[in-house]
Design brief:
This protein has about 270 residues and is mainly alpha-helical. It has a domain at about 55-155 and about 260-270. It has helices at about 5-10, 15, 30-45, 60-75, 80-95, 100-125, 130-150, 155-160, 170-200, 205-235, 250-270. Helix 3 (about 30-45) crosses helix 9 (about 170-200) and helix 5 (about 80-95) runs parallel beside helix 7.
Protein backbone atom coordinates (compact mmCIF):
# COMPACT_ATOMS: atom_id res chain seq x y z
CA UNK A 1 0.00 0.00 0.00
CA UNK A 2 1.47 3.37 -1.03
CA UNK A 3 1.98 6.46 1.06
CA UNK A 4 -0.78 8.37 -0.74
CA UNK A 5 -3.28 5.60 -0.08
CA UNK A 6 -2.41 5.61 3.64
CA UNK A 7 -2.99 9.35 3.78
CA UNK A 8 -6.36 8.99 2.07
CA UNK A 9 -7.45 6.26 4.49
CA UNK A 10 -6.38 8.39 7.46
CA UNK A 11 -8.46 11.28 6.21
CA UNK A 12 -11.59 9.11 5.71
CA UNK A 13 -14.01 8.80 8.66
CA UNK A 14 -14.08 5.58 10.62
CA UNK A 15 -17.62 4.62 9.58
CA UNK A 16 -16.53 4.50 5.93
CA UNK A 17 -13.72 2.09 6.77
CA UNK A 18 -15.99 -0.40 8.52
CA UNK A 19 -17.12 -3.45 6.58
CA UNK A 20 -20.87 -3.91 6.34
CA UNK A 21 -22.51 -7.22 5.48
CA UNK A 22 -25.85 -6.13 4.03
CA UNK A 23 -28.40 -8.87 3.56
CA UNK A 24 -31.58 -7.53 1.93
CA UNK A 25 -34.83 -8.73 3.43
CA UNK A 26 -36.70 -11.22 1.35
CA UNK A 27 -39.72 -9.92 -0.47
CA UNK A 28 -42.51 -12.30 -1.35
CA UNK A 29 -44.18 -11.47 -4.62
CA UNK A 30 -47.85 -10.88 -4.21
CA UNK A 31 -50.39 -12.90 -6.15
CA UNK A 32 -51.30 -9.80 -8.15
CA UNK A 33 -47.68 -9.32 -9.29
CA UNK A 34 -47.33 -12.92 -10.40
CA UNK A 35 -50.68 -12.87 -12.16
CA UNK A 36 -49.83 -9.61 -13.93
CA UNK A 37 -46.50 -10.99 -15.13
CA UNK A 38 -48.20 -14.14 -16.40
CA UNK A 39 -50.87 -12.18 -18.29
CA UNK A 40 -48.30 -9.83 -19.82
CA UNK A 41 -46.22 -12.82 -20.86
CA UNK A 42 -49.20 -14.31 -22.67
CA UNK A 43 -49.97 -10.99 -24.38
CA UNK A 44 -46.35 -10.60 -25.50
CA UNK A 45 -46.53 -14.02 -27.18
CA UNK A 46 -49.79 -13.22 -28.99
CA UNK A 47 -48.09 -12.41 -32.24
CA UNK A 48 -50.17 -11.33 -35.19
CA UNK A 49 -51.38 -14.54 -36.76
CA UNK A 50 -51.32 -14.32 -40.54
CA UNK A 51 -53.11 -17.57 -41.18
CA UNK A 52 -52.91 -19.09 -44.63
CA UNK A 53 -55.94 -19.98 -46.69
CA UNK A 54 -56.16 -23.74 -46.89
CA UNK A 55 -56.86 -25.85 -49.93
CA UNK A 56 -60.50 -26.33 -48.98
CA UNK A 57 -60.99 -22.90 -47.43
CA UNK A 58 -64.03 -20.91 -48.44
CA UNK A 59 -63.98 -17.20 -49.09
CA UNK A 60 -63.31 -15.22 -45.87
CA UNK A 61 -66.75 -13.61 -45.76
CA UNK A 62 -68.47 -16.99 -46.07
CA UNK A 63 -66.10 -18.50 -43.47
CA UNK A 64 -67.05 -15.77 -41.04
CA UNK A 65 -70.74 -16.34 -41.78
CA UNK A 66 -70.86 -20.11 -41.25
CA UNK A 67 -68.60 -19.90 -38.19
CA UNK A 68 -71.09 -17.54 -36.53
CA UNK A 69 -73.98 -19.81 -37.55
CA UNK A 70 -72.26 -22.90 -36.10
CA UNK A 71 -71.55 -21.10 -32.82
CA UNK A 72 -75.17 -19.92 -32.56
CA UNK A 73 -76.52 -23.41 -33.29
CA UNK A 74 -74.18 -24.94 -30.72
CA UNK A 75 -75.21 -22.43 -28.06
CA UNK A 76 -78.96 -22.67 -28.72
CA UNK A 77 -79.44 -26.43 -29.04
CA UNK A 78 -80.81 -28.43 -26.12
CA UNK A 79 -80.00 -31.88 -27.49
CA UNK A 80 -76.66 -33.17 -26.26
CA UNK A 81 -76.49 -35.66 -29.14
CA UNK A 82 -76.36 -32.74 -31.59
CA UNK A 83 -73.57 -31.20 -29.50
CA UNK A 84 -71.58 -34.44 -29.75
CA UNK A 85 -72.09 -34.52 -33.53
CA UNK A 86 -70.84 -30.93 -33.78
CA UNK A 87 -67.85 -31.80 -31.62
CA UNK A 88 -66.97 -34.79 -33.80
CA UNK A 89 -67.36 -32.75 -37.01
CA UNK A 90 -65.16 -29.94 -35.70
CA UNK A 91 -62.45 -32.40 -34.66
CA UNK A 92 -62.52 -34.04 -38.09
CA UNK A 93 -62.10 -30.69 -39.85
CA UNK A 94 -59.37 -29.69 -37.38
CA UNK A 95 -57.40 -32.83 -38.30
CA UNK A 96 -56.72 -31.35 -41.76
CA UNK A 97 -54.87 -28.37 -40.25
CA UNK A 98 -51.07 -28.32 -39.83
CA UNK A 99 -49.74 -29.83 -36.62
CA UNK A 100 -48.42 -26.50 -35.35
CA UNK A 101 -51.80 -24.83 -35.83
CA UNK A 102 -53.59 -27.74 -34.15
CA UNK A 103 -51.41 -27.40 -31.05
CA UNK A 104 -52.06 -23.67 -30.78
CA UNK A 105 -55.81 -24.02 -31.35
CA UNK A 106 -56.15 -26.81 -28.79
CA UNK A 107 -54.04 -24.85 -26.28
CA UNK A 108 -56.49 -21.96 -26.39
CA UNK A 109 -59.43 -24.36 -26.27
CA UNK A 110 -58.02 -26.16 -23.24
CA UNK A 111 -57.62 -22.90 -21.33
CA UNK A 112 -61.21 -21.85 -22.06
CA UNK A 113 -62.55 -25.27 -21.05
CA UNK A 114 -60.61 -25.28 -17.77
CA UNK A 115 -61.87 -21.80 -16.85
CA UNK A 116 -65.45 -22.79 -17.68
CA UNK A 117 -65.15 -25.97 -15.63
CA UNK A 118 -63.82 -24.06 -12.61
CA UNK A 119 -66.73 -21.61 -12.80
CA UNK A 120 -69.29 -24.42 -13.08
CA UNK A 121 -67.89 -26.67 -10.35
CA UNK A 122 -70.54 -25.48 -7.82
CA UNK A 123 -73.22 -26.83 -10.18
CA UNK A 124 -71.98 -30.35 -9.49
CA UNK A 125 -72.71 -29.94 -5.78
CA UNK A 126 -76.14 -28.45 -6.46
CA UNK A 127 -77.46 -31.56 -8.17
CA UNK A 128 -76.83 -30.57 -11.82
CA UNK A 129 -73.60 -32.32 -12.87
CA UNK A 130 -74.80 -32.60 -16.50
CA UNK A 131 -74.66 -28.81 -16.87
CA UNK A 132 -70.89 -28.92 -16.42
CA UNK A 133 -70.51 -31.44 -19.24
CA UNK A 134 -72.92 -29.66 -21.59
CA UNK A 135 -71.49 -26.17 -21.23
CA UNK A 136 -67.83 -27.21 -21.33
CA UNK A 137 -68.49 -29.16 -24.53
CA UNK A 138 -70.19 -26.14 -26.11
CA UNK A 139 -67.32 -23.89 -25.03
CA UNK A 140 -64.84 -26.35 -26.53
CA UNK A 141 -66.68 -26.33 -29.87
CA UNK A 142 -67.08 -22.54 -30.00
CA UNK A 143 -63.48 -21.70 -29.08
CA UNK A 144 -62.16 -24.32 -31.51
CA UNK A 145 -64.26 -22.84 -34.32
CA UNK A 146 -62.89 -19.37 -33.57
CA UNK A 147 -59.35 -20.75 -33.50
CA UNK A 148 -59.88 -22.51 -36.83
CA UNK A 149 -61.17 -19.27 -38.31
CA UNK A 150 -58.13 -17.42 -36.96
CA UNK A 151 -55.48 -19.89 -38.10
CA UNK A 152 -57.22 -20.91 -41.32
CA UNK A 153 -57.76 -17.42 -42.76
CA UNK A 154 -55.40 -14.50 -43.13
CA UNK A 155 -56.46 -11.71 -40.76
CA UNK A 156 -56.16 -8.97 -43.34
CA UNK A 157 -58.65 -10.77 -45.60
CA UNK A 158 -60.88 -11.54 -42.63
CA UNK A 159 -61.10 -7.93 -41.49
CA UNK A 160 -61.71 -6.88 -45.08
CA UNK A 161 -64.53 -9.43 -45.27
CA UNK A 162 -66.31 -7.61 -42.45
CA UNK A 163 -67.03 -4.86 -44.96
CA UNK A 164 -69.37 -7.25 -46.80
CA UNK A 165 -71.53 -7.42 -43.64
CA UNK A 166 -71.85 -3.61 -43.55
CA UNK A 167 -69.70 -3.33 -40.43
CA UNK A 168 -68.66 0.32 -39.81
CA UNK A 169 -65.16 1.24 -40.89
CA UNK A 170 -64.32 2.56 -37.43
CA UNK A 171 -65.08 -0.82 -35.83
CA UNK A 172 -63.03 -2.68 -38.46
CA UNK A 173 -60.12 -0.29 -37.97
CA UNK A 174 -60.25 -0.65 -34.17
CA UNK A 175 -60.35 -4.44 -34.39
CA UNK A 176 -57.51 -4.54 -36.92
CA UNK A 177 -55.21 -2.30 -34.89
CA UNK A 178 -56.02 -4.10 -31.62
CA UNK A 179 -55.14 -7.49 -33.06
CA UNK A 180 -51.85 -6.20 -34.42
CA UNK A 181 -50.59 -4.16 -31.46
CA UNK A 182 -51.80 -6.06 -28.40
CA UNK A 183 -48.64 -8.18 -28.43
CA UNK A 184 -46.46 -5.07 -28.75
CA UNK A 185 -47.98 -3.41 -25.69
CA UNK A 186 -47.80 -6.70 -23.78
CA UNK A 187 -44.08 -7.02 -24.54
CA UNK A 188 -43.41 -3.39 -23.51
CA UNK A 189 -45.26 -3.80 -20.20
CA UNK A 190 -43.44 -7.08 -19.52
CA UNK A 191 -40.06 -5.42 -20.16
CA UNK A 192 -40.94 -2.58 -17.76
CA UNK A 193 -42.02 -5.03 -15.07
CA UNK A 194 -38.82 -7.07 -15.49
CA UNK A 195 -36.64 -3.94 -15.37
CA UNK A 196 -38.40 -2.77 -12.21
CA UNK A 197 -37.84 -6.14 -10.56
CA UNK A 198 -34.13 -6.19 -11.47
CA UNK A 199 -33.61 -2.68 -10.09
CA UNK A 200 -35.42 -3.39 -6.82
CA UNK A 201 -33.34 -4.44 -3.80
CA UNK A 202 -34.90 -5.83 -0.69
CA UNK A 203 -38.53 -5.44 0.18
CA UNK A 204 -40.74 -3.08 -1.77
CA UNK A 205 -43.61 -1.91 0.47
CA UNK A 206 -45.13 0.24 -2.28
CA UNK A 207 -46.08 -2.35 -4.89
CA UNK A 208 -49.31 -0.54 -5.75
CA UNK A 209 -47.36 2.59 -6.72
CA UNK A 210 -44.97 0.53 -8.85
CA UNK A 211 -47.89 -1.19 -10.56
CA UNK A 212 -49.55 2.14 -11.32
CA UNK A 213 -46.24 3.39 -12.71
CA UNK A 214 -46.13 0.46 -15.14
CA UNK A 215 -49.65 1.20 -16.30
CA UNK A 216 -48.89 4.90 -16.72
CA UNK A 217 -45.70 4.25 -18.70
CA UNK A 218 -47.50 1.74 -20.92
CA UNK A 219 -50.28 4.26 -21.55
CA UNK A 220 -47.80 6.98 -22.53
CA UNK A 221 -45.95 4.56 -24.79
CA UNK A 222 -49.19 3.48 -26.46
CA UNK A 223 -50.13 7.13 -27.01
CA UNK A 224 -46.76 7.79 -28.61
CA UNK A 225 -47.10 4.72 -30.85
CA UNK A 226 -50.63 5.78 -31.82
CA UNK A 227 -49.41 9.25 -32.90
CA UNK A 228 -46.58 7.73 -34.94
CA UNK A 229 -48.91 5.22 -36.57
CA UNK A 230 -51.45 7.94 -37.40
CA UNK A 231 -48.75 10.06 -39.04
CA UNK A 232 -47.43 7.11 -41.06
CA UNK A 233 -50.94 6.13 -42.23
CA UNK A 234 -51.69 9.71 -43.28
CA UNK A 235 -48.47 9.72 -45.30
CA UNK A 236 -49.65 6.55 -47.05
CA UNK A 237 -52.98 8.10 -47.97
CA UNK A 238 -55.23 6.15 -45.57
CA UNK A 239 -58.52 7.99 -45.03
CA UNK A 240 -60.19 5.56 -42.63
CA UNK A 241 -62.25 3.77 -45.27
CA UNK A 242 -61.97 0.10 -46.15
CA UNK A 243 -62.66 -0.55 -49.82
CA UNK A 244 -63.49 -3.97 -51.20
CA UNK A 245 -60.85 -4.90 -53.75
CA UNK A 246 -63.03 -7.33 -55.67
CA UNK A 247 -66.58 -8.56 -55.73
CA UNK A 248 -67.67 -11.76 -54.08
CA UNK A 249 -67.42 -14.81 -56.30
CA UNK A 250 -68.92 -18.15 -55.40
CA UNK A 251 -66.25 -20.88 -55.54
CA UNK A 252 -66.31 -24.66 -55.43
CA UNK A 253 -65.08 -24.65 -51.84
CA UNK A 254 -68.02 -22.42 -50.91
CA UNK A 255 -70.42 -24.98 -52.34
CA UNK A 256 -68.91 -27.73 -50.18
CA UNK A 257 -69.20 -25.65 -47.00
CA UNK A 258 -72.71 -24.57 -47.98
CA UNK A 259 -73.81 -28.20 -48.22
CA UNK A 260 -72.31 -28.92 -44.80
CA UNK A 261 -74.08 -25.87 -43.37
CA UNK A 262 -77.45 -26.96 -44.81
CA UNK A 263 -76.99 -30.49 -43.41
CA UNK A 264 -76.16 -29.02 -40.01
CA UNK A 265 -79.27 -26.82 -40.06
CA UNK A 266 -81.50 -29.77 -41.03
CA UNK A 267 -80.01 -31.91 -38.29
CA UNK A 268 -80.52 -29.11 -35.78
CA UNK A 269 -84.23 -28.79 -36.59
CA UNK A 270 -84.67 -32.58 -36.70
CA UNK A 271 -83.15 -33.11 -33.24
CA UNK A 272 -84.73 -30.01 -31.75
Amino acid sequence: MGKDELNVMQEMPEWMLQKEAYIPSSDREAFLTKSTKAVLGVLSRMKFQGGKDGRFSATPSFQLFYTLVYIILTACNQNYFFTLIMFAGVMVVLAFYPAKSIRRILAGTLGAVVISALILIPAMFMGNPQILLRITTKVCISVTLIGMLSYGTSWNRLTAALRAFRVPDLLIFTLDITLKYISVLGAISLDILTALKLRSVGKNPKKARSFSGILGTSFLKSREMADEMYASMCCRGFTGEYHKQHKYRFRKQDLLHLLLLVCCLLLFYYLK
